[in-house]
Every structure is written in structure tokens, then in C-alpha cells.
Amino acid sequence: MIAEAQLETFGITKGRAATLEEGAVMADRTAKAIRSPDAHHIEVLEQQNRVLGYYWVSLVASPAPMLLDIYVVTSSRGRGLGDVIMRRILAVLRERKVDCLNLVVSRDNHAARALYSRFGASLVEMSGDLLVLSLPVSSTA
Ligand SMILES: CC(C)(COP(=O)(O)OP(=O)(O)OC[C@H]1O[C@@H](n2cnc3c(N)ncnc32)[C@H](O)[C@@H]1OP(=O)(O)O)[C@@H](O)C(=O)NCCC(=O)NCCS
Fold first, then answer.
1. Cβ(115) to ligand 1 under 6 A?
2. Is 64 in the pocket of ligand 1 (CB under 6 A)?
């Protein structure tokens, strides 16, 4: 159920590439989210004016906040930045008195799964190739 909601959020039908029109819808949703900081927490991480990655948490997702995206630029992966970003996300959620964070990850996304399991993620449900995980916000890994 959460997995289907996530697909809907991104305007993507499983098994088909998004059209340019759908891409425009996604861009519009992103712009709206950036203008709604109480509902969406989105941060871009930079080092000396170089973008290293970003994350996007929906604070209004039900039943718990949802990590909609976490991304590290290809050239900076495998150096612990994902870990740094996760710690940042959890600190932000702790300030908001949130207990857990949900997320969806592909079964074969080994790097992301390794990252989440380090923070105590547990399986909530499986939907095809997608796993819905829940992560305790109290985790400091
Ligand atoms: C997932 C992602 C954010 C991780 O960022 P990162 O900076 O590389 O993360 P870290 O350096 O902290 O490493 C994370 C873990 O992945 C492991 N890892 C890295 N590449 C891997 C691979 N190809 N296969 C298996 N594990 C891998 C690392 O060893 C580390 O695990 P460990 O702590 O148990 O050793 C990054 O790979 C990314 O942006 N991927 C594309 C976007 C994406 O898939 N986002 C997740 C959506 S659910």
C-alpha cells in the first residue's frame, strides 16, 4: 500500500519510463514541496559550492514521515556521505519528535539497503521488487 502510494507520488507507472509531460508534473510537485517546508523537508548538501547530494522527506506522509529520495552524486559515493545524510535526516526528525521514518527501496539496490540496515531498518512489506522499510528515528547507527 505504501509502495503504491510512493509510485503515485512520483507519477511513475511501474515498468514504463515517464513521459516528458509526467516529468513536468514531477517538477511541479517538487517546486510545490520546496514552497511547503512544514510538509516537506528537502536539503541540498554542498561542499565548496559543489553539490554532493540531496534528500527529500515528506513530513505529512501517513502513517509516518517518508524518505522520498536520498541521493549522492556518483563521483562521491562509497565514502560515507550517505551515512552523513542519514544522520542529518534522523537529527531533523528527532527535533520534530518523530518516532520512525518509512521508505521504499528496490530489492537490488544493495548500497541503499546496506545503508538503511546500518540504521536499524526493518521490513514492513514487500511489493514486487520494492521493499517498504521502517527505520527508528532514535537510531544513531
Ligand atoms: C544509496 C546512496 C545514497 C548511498 O550513498 P553513499 O555515500 O555511497 O553511502 P555510504 O558511503 O555511506 O555507503 C553506504 C553502504 O553501501 C555500501 N555499498 C556501496 N556500494 C555498494 C554496492 N555496489 N553494493 C553493495 N554495497 C555497497 C557501502 O559499503 C556502505 O555499507 P557499509 O557501511 O555496510 O560498508 C548512493 O549510493 C546513491 O545516491 N544511490 C543512488 C540513489 C539511490 O539509490 N537512493 C536510494 C533510494 S531508496
1. yes
2. no
- Report the number of distinct structural domains present in the chain: 1
Residue 57 lies in a domain: yes
pLDDT in tens, the chain (141 residues): 455 555 555 555 566 778 899 899 989 999 999 999 999 999 999 999 999 999 999 999 998 999 999 999 999 999 999 999 999 999 999 999 999 999 999 999 999 999 999 999 999 999 888 999 999 998 776
Q: What is the pTM of this model?
A: 0.85
> Where residue 108 sits, what CATH number does that domain have?
3.40.630.30
> Residue 114: which domain range?
2-136
Output Rg (C-alpha) for the chain, integer angstroms: 15
Ligand 1 probe mutation, 10, 43, 69, 72, most atoms within 8 A of CB: 72
Residue 141 lies in a domain: no
b/e per residue, 112-121, with b = 16+ CB within 10 A? bbebbeebbb
